[in-house]
Specification:
The protein is an alpha/beta fold. The chain has one domain: NAD(P)-binding Rossmann-like Domain (Rossmann fold, 3-Layer(aba) Sandwich). The protein is 46% helix and 16% strand. It is built from 9 helices and 7 strands. A 7-stranded parallel beta sheet has the order 3-2-1-4-5-6-7, sandwiched between helices. Helix 1 (13-24) packs parallel to helix 2. The radius of gyration is 17 Å and the shape is globular. The relative contact order is 0.14. It binds NADP nicotinamide-adenine-dinucleotide phosphate.
């Protein structure tokens, strides 16, 4: 039977790599994006060219209406939802803590935390209705344990909350066969660093990582696909660092 995975923020970066890897493993993939329609369409096209099936799911996960739109597109495809990757995430610009505005904090917390909660709530409802279990992977960050001083403490705190969310959700729904885990990437080569105004962040910090380099999106995607798979059938409530030892 076909199985559906929703990947939020799948147009670029880690989310795009997860979407492509999931399709290669036979998942029908819900490709969520917020603004960059062209990038998301390119991911959907690449999946189709490789013989897979993508379902475009535009919507801002930071709002209840956006999440409703995402799930309306998913539900219309008729394939049961078996997995969710809560990947969409943002950082504010790198700046001293005392300069943070309430608007910045709301954007960070609404996208990284509220969005993950709302997407997981809708996924769990559907998994319970199907009564076939499921798997959720939340994309946290090594920032959750490093705190990101002088950069984005708010982002780090949102990821710390994601870790706690992962633990609670795993314990609440384990008996219903729903596994919930998190990955905590370190310095991964994507556009998120430039978006934070730190274009050289990967080159600057990569060599300081114990493995001596930044990570690539496929290295994170492989770990996420493993956590979704039956190979990880006894893994839940785990926070898996994919950070090169950072
Ligand atoms: P990225 O390259 O900046 O891509 C972010 C993706 O999230 C984009 O597809 C973007 O969609 C989407 N997105 C942002 N806000 C959204 C919203 N409100 N609703 C729906 N989609 C939204 O980021 P990335 O580096 O791949 O990061 C992916 C995840 O990994 C994030 O949760 C991030 O915190 C985490 N992470 C990354 C690193 C790293 O070093 N890269 C390290 C640790 C953790 P649009 O393109 O449509 O804007």
């Amino acid at each position: 039977m076909d199985r559906l995975v929703l990947v939020t923020g799948a147009g670029r970066g880690i989310g795009a790599a997860v979407a492509l890897a999931a399709a290669a493993q036979g998942y029908v993939v819900g490709v969520n994006y917020r603004r960059d329609r062209a990038a998301a369409e390119a991911v959907c096209a690449a999946i189709a060219v490789a013989g897979g099936h993508a379902v475009p799911c535009p919507g801002d996960v930071a709002s209840e209406a956006g999440v409703a739109a995402v799930y309306a597109a998913l539900d219309a495809c008729g394939v049961p939802l078996r997995a969710l990757v809560n990947n969409a995430g943002v950082t504010g610009r790198v700046m001293p803590f005392v300069e943070y505005t309430a608007e910045r904090l709301r954007t960070t917390f609404d996208t990284n935390l509220l969005g993950a909660f709302l997407c997981a709530r809708e996924a769990v409802k559907r998994m319970l209705a199907n009564d076939a279990g499921g798997a959720i992977v939340n994309v946290s960050s090594a920032a959750a344990r490093l705190g990101s001083p002088h950069e984005f403490i708010d982002y780090a705190a949102s990821k710390g909350a994601i870790d706690t969310f992962t633990l609670g959700l795993a314990r609440e729904y384990g008996e219903r066969g729903i596994r919930v885990n998190a990955v905590r990437p370190g310095i991964i080569r994507t556009s998120i660093h430039a978006s934070a105004g730190a274009v050289d962040r990967v080159e600057r910090l990569g060599p300081q990582v114990p493995l001596g380099r930044a990570g690539e999106v496929d290295e994170v995607a492989r770990t996420i696909l493993w956590l979704l798979s039956d190979e990880a059938s006894y893994v839940t409530g785990a926070l898996v660092d994919v950070a090169g030892g950072r």
